[in-house]
Amino acid sequence: MQELFHQKIESEEAKRARMNMLWRDESKKFNVSGQELSLKDCYAKSIYESHQTFEQTREVARENILEGKYILYVNSTASSIASNENIKYIDKDRLEMFYEAETGSGEIDPDNFQANNMRHCLGIEKGDPRFRSVNLTTEEIPEDLSNCVGIVFSGSEVNVKGEDIQERIEILKKAEKIANKAIEQGIISFGICFGGQLLAKQAGAEIDWIEKNGERKSVTGINPVILENSFLFSAENHKQEIKKNTLPDGAQVIAYSVNGGIEIIRFPDKGIFSVQFHPEVDPTRLDLMASMKDTDQYRGEFFSKDLNKVRSIVFPDFLNAVGYNAKRLQN
To answer: Is 301 an active-site residue?
Structure first.
């Protein structure tokens, strides 16, 4: 028994060493936008860019979320990278830098990771009452939205179309109920991936599986987004999509993927702003996921693509819509 226990300890140590090999070896360099950087340097670069983006977005949030009002984050997913069973093998100093890049604080707080990540993306500081959250996997939807001026719907494991798992069906029903209330009450809504598909469906578009040659496909990884004749890069992970030929009158497609899929779309008459990708995802998250999957592919590419650039566009755009709507209602 003692020998088996010793083997288990050695196995866990070997796994930790393997997952953090590139992190611990500062002689290993990655070409990031013409610079040769260690993985720790890459994390420091992401933290700097994340804080820069936060500072810019914070000014937009202060201007557009009026006193006594708040943004509601509707989280429809039961798990995140912070709850991955392999996260325990990641070195603590690396986790702290990951949290700093994703939430603005090096405090390791897995239970609140997703909400803190979204709050940071919206340029709102921790403890600020202008940000509230609800997790539909464990909580009921809030009944009173009288002071809510904007709602962000998260991504999810839930499928908008064809869901057959009962627990997920219940989450979908809750999300649909909040989306309907937002439309009825004139609250500006912003959807990400599943959330974007959900809102598009509520606005009248059709959602369907991604298919190629009769087989269902998924879109994952870093993909270019074409916005105003320029390329931005985003993190994607989805199996369903908004069908272009089903868009209702008035829908405004703002950005496409290189294969022609919808990436950003507005439904002005419904107060809806949807994105297909994940603007909340930072390169450090992709790097941790690669480590936990035991792959070293594309590590330098994660940090070469400025994911904060797309974050710096879509969240302020949503906040400006929130502010415009609030001022319009006041007048």
So the answer is: no
